[in-house]
């Protein structure tokens, strides 16, 4: 070097040792390179509705732009009043059990920021948090980044991916601080029964666990099913409810999310002080997007148009599921929420050892980008997640390519 001394390699911090987020990992890097080289890639990897022509409701865009000049400064660290009030009313209308006020609502730069903040506020080194398997991998990454340990509980594919209560029970230790419930679930699209949710609540109450309910897909539902928010089931446990506008209102890029603290709060003042401090440290959530929240929560819920039988997302789900199930050795349960499915590859037919490499082969050979199951902390290399956001034409194209790819693999 110019100064003459050999430079030590700059390594990432050891805090990142068990942190991974494969949805935007090596597969995406390869896909981006292929695109730069002029290939067209069909991307079934990210739950980002806007690029697939699923536009945000115009009233939302108008709200944000009308308020733009008012929203140039930092807001309150927890968020603007009107948005927080609307969030409260949303949960109250759903049957929230405990008394809350605007101080119990935190707006964030998406649910993502609030997930990381929660784990930072909650976990000491060595603490454990129960997280579903498969999961939305940010939860595991954030738990491990906080110095704690993500302990995965099983969701049963044979039982339409409902959480396995016995497995949860067997994994509770005296280090367990909380339990994460993602309902409707990413990556399985499962909607949990009220019965199962109540059993989880009972365990949380018995063992003093914080319930973290990620309900970002609660308005993306098919088949007239009803979603039960965790905060409507108990006021005997501390319940943190997460939601936002990324999916329901197709404005993932605006970064509008929130968290409600409800239930048993009396003993939690110190933890809440921690949350307040972390909220202050990041100053505030993106202020223009906060102005979308009141209208979004109170206004017309346009997502229903997309998920009704005549809607685009409904039709795309039907097609993805039937095409996937028609492939020999592939089976897939039908999701009732969100826009994902998590098919299984029969290991007898496809003896996959490294599912990331398998999906890399798919990308290189057929130009379809799909994230492997282990990217969602699934413990076997026998699943993958399909995002069915592309329109029917593109989805059909993707399914033709999958057909061809799996047929080729069967012959190898
Ligand atoms: N939680 C789940 C289950 C998700 O699927 C996602 C995004 O895919 C998020 C949280 C993050 O959402 P946000 O855009 O609000 O950060």
UniProtKB/TrEMBL annotation:
Q: What is its EC number?
A: 2.6.1.2
Q: Which domain of life is it from?
A: Bacteria
Q: Can you tell me which family this protein belongs to?
A: Belongs to the class-I pyridoxal-phosphate-dependent aminotransferase family.
Top-level enzyme category: transferase
Species for this entry: Psychrobacter aestuarii
> What is the name of this protein?
alanine transaminase
- Keywords tagged on the record: Aminotransferase, Pyridoxal phosphate, Transferase
Q: Give the cofactors, semicolon-separated.
A: pyridoxal 5'-phosphate
In alphabetical order, the GO MF annotations are: transaminase activity
